[in-house]
């Protein structure tokens, strides 16, 4: 068994990847908004994004990054890692929808 063919490798990569991508995307969108609106700070943007749940579409869109990991592991036939990526995608989807509809 290869060292990359583990369930936790796919799970960690499937959770950390979209969170990092969505964080980068949120930072650059905040930077763009702050540059266009005078007197508006990054802190104001983050407050609005988190109170209005405006960050959730970023996380859902960033979950598309899991397709890259999924197909990479699938091509190498690392079946346990593929299962981990699928599990991570499902966990992200469940958490995003539960935050969106329940809070």
Output the keywords:
5 helices, elongated, mainly alpha, 80% helix, single chain, 103 residues
What does this structure look like?
The chain has 103 residues and is mostly helical. It has one domain. It is built from 5 helices and no strands. It has helices at residues 7-36, 42-51, 56-62, 65-75, 79-102. It is elongated and about 55 Å long. The termini are far apart. The model has no long low-confidence stretch (mean pLDDT 89).
Task: Give me a quick take on this structure.
The protein has five helices and no strands.
SSE blueprint:
Layout: H1 7-36, H2 42-51, H3 56-62, H4 65-75, H5 79-102
Helix pairs in contact: 1-3, 1-4, 1-5, 4-5
Average pLDDT reading: 89
- Global shape: elongated
Computed structural class: mainly alpha
Tell me the major beta sheet.
none
Structural Rg: 16 Å
Write the H/E string, N to C: HHHHH
Number of helices: 5
Q: What is the percent of helical residues?
A: over 70%
Strand composition percent:
under 5%
Unreliable segments of 5+ consecutive residues: none
Distance between the termini: 43 Å
The number of strands is 0
| Number of discrete domains | 1
